[in-house]
Amino acid sequence: MTSQLFAVCFNATRPSDLATFWSGVLGWKAAEGPDGDVAILPPDIADPAGFRIRFLPSQEPRTGRNRVHFDLTSTSPEDQQRTVARALDLGGHHLDVGQLPEEGHVVLADPDGNEFCVIAPGNKFLADTGVIGALSCDGTREVGYFWSAALRWPLVWDQDEETAIQSPTGGTKITWGGPPVAPKTGPNRLYFDLRLPDGADWEAELDRLISLGATRADTGEGAGEGGRALLLDPDGNEFSVQRLR
């Protein structure tokens, strides 16, 4: 059995506060995570393409821009304005990353400084994807191919070194913008949490991911304890693989 995208994890200075922010922006309900952490759940958590968002305590200082950010969709100009207003009311703020007025999207940061975009309505690439239209990643074509094989999600875009994948059942896309890729200056604040169904061969799945281009990041004492492993994708981004409990 193949690993599934179980969660997008935020390392946060104040996990409960950040969960409250994103719950309010997305309209997702709060719940206790699988390891006692704070999480928010989409309306249909049973959807195979769905994932939760987990907020984990961390005091790691912010170093540079995140390699992953959310692109939120809008159904109308008024809907886009409401999403922006809701985010600002909840403690978000505008962010200038060099975007142009004619680009139509609004760039914001959450209370912990994590960037995200509210996309204008009518974006055909994000049509029918849901409120989180894309997990937009800074990364190479190679890493897009890796994640397509790792999750067994087909490529839905592969042009000019930009790639995108999407679950066969639809939902949020994961995109990579191609070079130049900003240097990695520390652990990522956002990372993917993969889970294997109960009864799946965990070691065989780790071997499969490594054969696709991943490397182990937890090779010290205690690595893999409790059925959890920390790996790096071909671009050096951390991700975890665990047995589903």
TrEMBL record:
Domain Glyoxalase-like: 7-119, 135-241
Chain coiled-coil ranges: none
Cited Pfam families: Glyoxalase_6
Protein origin, superkingdom: Bacteria
Protein name: Glyoxalase-like domain-containing protein
Naturally occurring in which organism (per UniProt): Kitasatospora viridis
